[in-house]
TrEMBL record:
Gene3D superfamilies with a match to the protein in the record: Hypothetical protein af1432
Domain HD-GYP: 111-306
InterPro entries from the UniProt entry: HD/PDEase_dom, HD_GYP_dom, HDIG_dom
Protein name: HD-GYP domain-containing protein
Lineage of the species this protein comes from: Bacteria, Bacillati, Bacillota, Clostridia, Eubacteriales
Pfam family, one: HD_5
Species this protein is from: Fusibacter paucivorans
Amino acid sequence: MRLKSIERIAVGEVLGKSVYDDKCQLLLARNVALTQNYIDRLKQASIQCIYIEDEISEGIEPENVVSQELKLKSVNVIQNVFKQATGKKSVGFDAMQVDQIKDIIDEMMEIVFSHRDTLYVMAELMGTDMYTYNHSAEVAVLSMLVAKSLGLNHQFIQKIGVGAMLHDIGKMKIPNEVLNKITPLSDEEMKLVKEHARFGYDILKESISISPISRQIILLHHEKLDGNGYPMRLTADEIPVHVRIVTMCDIFNALVSNRAYREKLNVDEALEILRAEAIYQLDREIYYHLLKVVNIYPPGTIVELSNGTIGIVIKENREAQTRPLVQLIVNNKKGDIVNLMDNLTLFITKTIEL
Ligand SMILES: [Fe+2]
C-alpha cells in the first residue's frame, strides 16, 4: 500500500484505506476499485491523497502513530469545540467540552508512550476544508512526540497536547474567505489573520480548566526567537519551551499539508526549510528532536536515487533515516532490493510521485 496524490489516480486502481468526508462519514470503503465516478467524488470532496494497493507497493503496510479511528474522533471533537467559538468573543466552555479534548489527548498520550519505535508519518487524508481541524490533531500528536523525545514529564506533555490541539481556535473568528484566499492577503487581512493568537487566548479566558501552559501556547505560538513573531514580539529567553515545541510542529505540519494557495512540500523539503529557520527563528534543539520523531521516508515513498534509478522505500532505518531499505522499480515492476546502509555512495536525491 502507498500514498498517492488524487491527480495521479487512474481508473481501476484499488483503494488501500477507507476515505471519509468532512462530516467524518465514510465516502469510499477500502478495497474498492476506483471508477471515474468515484475519482470525481473524491475530487469534489477536495481529498488530496489516498492510499492505494498496487503491485510495486504490495506487502507494504504504512504504520501511523494514530489510528484512523482516533484521528476521525479527534477531528470530530475539535470541529465541535471550534465551531462553538465561531464569531464569539469569549466562550465559557463547559467542563464537558474541555473534558472531551482532554480525553482525546489522554488517548493520544497512551499511544505516544506505548509505541517506542513508531515514527510519525504525515498523512493528510481529508479535504482542504478540514485543514484547521486535521492540522490541530496532527500538531497535537507531533508536539507530544517531540515533548516526549525531549524527556518532559507526563503531566507537562498532556498540557502541551491540549494547547497544541486548541492553538488555532482563534481562527474561528476570521472569515473563511480570508483564511482560504488563493491570492496574497492585503495588509488589512494579514493584520486580521495575525490577530487569531490573541482571539484564541480571549475565547478561552474564562475556561478555568485549561492550564496556563496550554493558554500560553495559544497566545504565543507565532512568536519567533529573533523577535520577528507576533503578537508580542517576544525574543528567545521570553519564549518558553512548550511554546517553542508547538511553533516548530505547527510550521512543519503546515508545510507538508496542501493549502488553498499552495501545494504541500515533501517531508525532506520541509525539514530543510526548518533547518535554515532554526538558526535564527526556531529552537535548534527542538529541531533535532523533530528529526528524531518524524519519518522522512516512510515505507511506500517513491524515491529517486543518485544513480538515476527509481525505487520504493520498503523499510525505514531508525539509525540513519536518510538510508532506508529501497526496492528498485524497473518498468513498473519490483526489482532488486538495495540497502542504502551498505551502499554509502548511493543516496536519495528526491521524493517523486509515480
Ligand atoms: Fe496559528
